[in-house]
């Protein structure tokens, strides 16, 4: 059987467990069968400060300073993150979010009240819900079908509201954000 690191497992006597300390060495280096040494990732030292500018890798690891290309990528990512924060604080983004909230809050509250009202009425007033309306169709059946109908109506109203009130502004924000992010990443390299 193969272990997760690709090396064959031993005979099961327990001498090759990764958590053992051999010959006074710390837990960072573990010997596998055949005296091959490899680093055990479960016992690496904490990597606080790893990748920060001007710092080196943790003691005992083989890396030195963080490569320049990685640092440039990280600088570009930080610049891109700043772009997203600026867009989030912008008046256009806040307007799109407030339009969204002004529709979704009342719509969810209304639908939840309608659903809870249906469940409570079915539980508390079974005689009312059993009252026939037309033939074998009673109030409960009409109210239950009304639940499905209002779900579809709410979905239609949400899609219409998004199309008419938010989509164009959100698309403009997306394009602006992509352009600013592209400029921030290329300016950081």
UniProtKB/TrEMBL annotation:
PANTHER family: INTEGRAL MEMBRANE PROTEIN-RELATED, MEMBRANE PROTEIN
Pfam families the record matches: DUF485
Transmembrane segments: 103-125, 137-159
Keyword Transmembrane among record annotations: yes
Keywords attached to this entry: Membrane, Transmembrane, Transmembrane helix
Matches recorded under InterPro entries: DUF485 (IPR007436)
Chain residue ranges for the region called Disordered: 1-72
Protein name stated in the entry: DUF485 domain-containing protein
Domain of life the protein comes from: Bacteria
